[in-house]
Design brief:
alpha+beta; eleven-stranded mixed sheet; 13 helices; globular
């Protein structure tokens, strides 16, 4: 039998529900695993072991309370957790302990999940490399000298290393997809509003979303069934419930393939792995067509909205780290004309995206433009000899998709010759989250790349 900590969340839930494994036993297996490997990986930065064990004992003393009854879960250090330290990756909040849970945490608890602690993130989620001045860097379980990605890098690394079977994350410019790609797990950026957030300062912001991460697509679907759903406190929350698509076949689906999303530089190792996905889908009976895209309008739109968001939320704080401070400074330069231009660009992209998905069912493309890079590097500054203008530029393959208001998943797609994970990005029409996961599930089943575990030093 597979070690408890590497079972799927779906199987863990079944074992606890049928009393074949106790919640205490399951939690202890994960706490032991955290003790064994977390010092090397630095994925879980605040461990709530005693609180978690109290929850597990209560779970064993009662009938199953929900679909995640007794299943361990970790929360990104950007979401509030009642009575558990939440730093947002910033020295300014290094001792902060919230009084209440954010909605996504509340829903996971109500479903019976056991909260084990918080996962590492860069300060306020700035960037796709998980490092901050409070906890340091999270390392990639497949190569401890490499980045785990970000900004949900702690979540992805914890999943890959067997520390938890489920983790929440957030995604503005790729923060669920990039670390999933780097760490050989599954991450879904849902359609905005699918997983509602209660935000008192930027309630109408649809660029940043909350979402699930797991080691399998089935587990992502299980988690989505818990965290998705309407809440009136979010002005654009989707009313329909999330239900996984029961269909398994992708035969006759029309799959568009873009190797570079319209001319972006892509590392040859990443490109080679991503390209193999076309053959997989053809083997499954889908119709695959390489397409020429022009998503360049997304760059200006994303940067304007992102800058505005950071200035609004963090502009009054002193002592910010360099990445957050740069974003705030860019936001202070945003004018009404900039916002108007960004709105026009994004509106046009949305309409063109709708027309695109009248022809194709899904788009497949690279998640990240590079494979995992050295953990000491603050960001990727050059791809294929092309110098990049700033720390955001290497993430365009992810953040251009963010602007489209579309669901997008990262699914394990293979490994570079050095053994570094690479994911493929599966993008669907807005609101077609279930279909995206159905396609991801078919790909996962056909390839099995996600079952390859990291070899961590004892």
């Amino acid at each position: 039998m597979t070690e408890l900590h590497y079972l799927s969340a779906t199987e863990m839930a079944r074992l606890v529900r049928t009393r074949q494994v106790s919640a205490v036993e399951l939690l202890q297996a994960h706490l032991d695993r955290i003790e064994q490997v977390n010092p090397q990986v630095n994925a879980i930065v605040t461990l709530a072991a005693e609180k978690a064990m109290e929850q597990a004992r209560r779970a064993d003393a009662q009938e199953p309370q929900g679909p995640l009854h007794g299943v361990p879960v970790a929360h990104k250090d950007l979401v509030d957790t009642a009575n558990i330290r939440t730093t947002y990756g910033s020295p300014l909040f290094s001792s902060h302990i919230p009084e209440k849970d954010d909605l996504i945490v509340e829903r996971l608890r109500q479903a019976g999940a056991i909260s084990v602690g918080k996962t590492n993130t860069p300060e306020f989620g700035t960037g796709s490399h998980t490092v901050n001045e409070v906890f340091g860097a999270t390392r990639n379980p497949y190569d401890l000298t490499k980045s785990a990605g970000g900004s949900s890098g702690g979540a992805a690394a914890a999943l890959a290393a067997g520390m938890v079977p489920l983790a929440d994350g957030s995604d503005m410019g790729g923060s669920l997809r990039n670390p999933a790609s780097f760490c050989n797990v599954v991450g879904l950026r849902p359609t905005p509003g699918r997983v509602p957030d209660v935000d008192e300062s930027t309630a109408w912001n649809t660029l940043a979303v909350l979402g699930p991460m797991a080691r399998t697509v089935e587990d992502v679907e299980l988690m989505m069934s818990v965290i998705a759903g309407f809440d009136p406190r979010s002005p654009y929350a989707i009313r329909e419930t999330f239900t996984p698509d029961p269909e398994k076949s992708v035969k006759n689906l029309k799959v568009a393939y873009s190797p570079d999303l319209g001319g972006l530089p892509v590392d040859p190792r990443t490109a080679a792995v991503t390209a193999t996905a076309t053959g997989v889908f053809e083997g499954l009976g889908a119709h695959v067509e390489q397409v020429d895209l022009d998503l360049s309008d997304a760059d200006d739109a994303f940067r304007v909205y992102r800058a505005w968001y950071f200035a609004l939320n963090f502009g009054d704080l002193d002592g910010l780290g360099p990445n957050t401070a740069w974003n705030v400074e860019q936001g202070r330069k945003v004018t009404a004309a900039d916002l108007g231009r960004a709105e026009r660009l994004r509106s046009g992209l949305y309409q063109r995206t709708a027309a695109f998905f009248d022809t194709y069912d899904v788009l497949i493309a690279p998640v990240s433009q590079v494979p995992p890079f050295p953990v000491e590097d603050p960001y990727v500054s050059e791809i294929n000899g092309e110098k990049l203008p700033d720390y955001l530029a290497w993430m365009r393959s992810a953040y251009w998709i963010s602007v489209l208001h579309a669901p997008a998943a990262s699914v394990p797609a293979g490994f570079t010759p050095e053994g570094l994970p690479v994911g493929v990005q599966i993008v669907g029409r807005p609101f077609a989250d279930a279909q995206v996961l159905r396609v991801a599930r078919a790909f996962e089943t056909a390839t099995g790349y996600g079952s390859r575990r990291p070899t961590l030093p004892a």
